[in-house]
Amino acid sequence: MVSKALSSNGETLLPRWPRRLPKLTGDEQSEPIYQIPKTTKENVEDFKVQSAKFRGKPQAKIYIIDQKQRIIRAEDNEVYGSLEDLATELPESSPRFVFLHCPVTLRDGRKTERFVLVYWLPENCNPTQRMSYAAMVNDFKGTFNVGRVFEVENADGIRGIADRIAAY
């Protein structure tokens, strides 16, 4: 039997939950939590052009979410020329976005190069940072027309990323 809540004057009170939320139209949808400024967009485009010149060698650049400025930016101006260098440079407890231009050999023996986004997400990272990066990964992917995102949790995953890229 369901009991009804009554007000002091004996009227039936409506339940508070479940509350129906208004549907958002395209004009009312919220902005992303973090912005991708024009400088970051130009930086990524420059990286794409420059990395294409180094055929046969992997090229990687690390991007971070700047919590204070609420933007995504390059961590520094360093471009990593090997997966080993990249694996040693990534922090053990903080997530990162890494653009990677990587030569791969396909199953049929053909050589090609792929431009992918690596979502560095170590197991022991701060939950707040984890959520910040998770909220932005699709926006970051869409802004730069990246075909594939690879989530990597440790340095061994970075070292073996070329095999995963070749498989897709």
What do you see in this structure?
The structure is a single chain. With 168 residues, the chain is α+β, with helices and mostly antiparallel strands. It is 30% helix and 21% strand. It is built from 5 helices and 5 strands, in the order H-E-E-H-E-E-H-E-H-H. A 5-stranded mixed β-sheet has the order 2-1-3-4-5. Strand 1 and strand 2 (71-74) form a beta hairpin. The longest helix has 17 residues, at 127-143. The radius of gyration is 23 Å and the shape is globular. The mean pLDDT is 83. Residues 1-11 have a biased composition (Polar residues). This is ADF-H domain-containing protein. One of its GO terms (cellular component) is actin cortical patch. Belongs to the actin-binding proteins ADF family. GMF subfamily.
Comma- or semicolon-separated keywords:
alpha+beta, Severin, 5-stranded mixed beta sheet, 5 helices, actin binding, GMF, Arp2/3 complex binding
The stretches of 5 or more residues where confidence is low (pLDDT under 50) are: none
Mean of residue pLDDT?
83
- Compute the number of helices: 5
CATH architecture: 3-Layer(aba) Sandwich
Tell me the domain tally.
1
Question: What is the strand and helix layout of this fold?
Answer:
Blueprint: H1 38-52, E1 59-66, E2 71-74, H2 83-89, E3 96-105, E4 111-120, H3 127-143, E5 149-152, H4 155-159, H5 161-167
Parallel strand pairs: 4-5
Antiparallel strand pairs: 1-2, 1-3, 3-4
